[in-house]
């Protein structure tokens, strides 16, 4: 498969996805969850009565007085996860009494409150974590490819890796912004973990492809071999490995998405999207960028 020959098609497709994701983030924004903005996470099981999300949300708003509650029903159970603004212990007991009057017996499975100051600290640490991860990845790639300086400087491998990481991260984030607007998906610690997992998977896949290209450059005479041909050969030799590795993870994630806990559905969907996009970028984005920057 001559990937380099059709590189402009692949790069244009990626550019459209990235642009659409940026527009999604700019238009819809990212809805901060309790972990980052502060609030209360409350999980209850309704024993005596069958109701759906909207019914429970209506009771919370009209009878309890909760402001903008977010209600998620757990898979195959009458258990609900409720997210509301931070409430005191006194209000907690009052809300619980009202729900018992309206719905009968209730089992309280979880009640957690996080202050806004804790949310700000988590957000600050997450930002620093991303900065350190990206800096470390760029430095490592540049160091690993220091002996292959022709025809592309080693530091360019590091920059291209960062570009592909941005590509692989911004597309799932754009999808998450869209889901946040239409389905209420929130940015929380699971979102941050998913983003770090995507970055780790993406850089691993990209380095595998770059490493094969490096081996090709070592074996070939730089003066006599065509760089584009070597890159194309290196990519083709790693396609099967990259796709097979990704498919094993994708099958697991698909199973978890359909049969796993509802509370983790957005977390799983984000990693699934990042895995697919990361596999695509390591094959069809990173190497074509390498040949373009060589000029």
Keywords, please?
295 residues; alpha+beta; Multidrug efflux transporter AcrB transmembrane fold; Alpha-Beta Plaits; 2 domains; four-stranded antiparallel sheet; 4 strands; 69% helix; elongated
Gross morphology is elongated
| Helix/strand structural class | alpha+beta
CA radius of gyration is: 24 Å
Helical residues, percent:
55-70%
Q: Which second-level CATH architecture of the largest domain applies?
A: Up-down Bundle
**Tally of DSSP helical segments:** 10
Give the tally of structural domains. 2
SSE order, one letter for each helix or strand: HHEHEEHEHHHHHH
Strand runs, count: 4
- CATH topology description of the largest domain: Multidrug efflux transporter AcrB transmembrane fold
How would you characterize this protein structure?
This protein folds into 2 domains: 7-33 and 117-293, Multidrug efflux transporter AcrB transmembrane domain (Multidrug efflux transporter AcrB transmembrane fold), CATH 1.20.1640.10; 39-114, 2-Layer Sandwich (Alpha-Beta Plaits), CATH 3.30.70.3400. It is built from 10 helices and 4 strands. The protein starts with 6 loop residues before the first helix and ends with a helix. α8 runs antiparallel to α10. The chain has helices at residues 7-28, 34-37, 53-64, 89-103, 116-144, 154-183, 189-219, 227-259, 265-284, 286-293, and strands at residues 39-46, 70-73, 79-84, 106-114. By secondary structure, it is of the alpha+beta class. The radius of gyration is 24 Å and the shape is elongated.
Summarize the helices and strands and which ones pair or pack.
Elements: H1 7-28, H2 34-37, E1 39-46, H3 53-64, E2 70-73, E3 79-84, H4 89-103, E4 106-114, H5 116-144, H6 154-183, H7 189-219, H8 227-259, H9 265-284, H10 286-293
Antiparallel strand pairs: 1-3, 1-4, 2-3
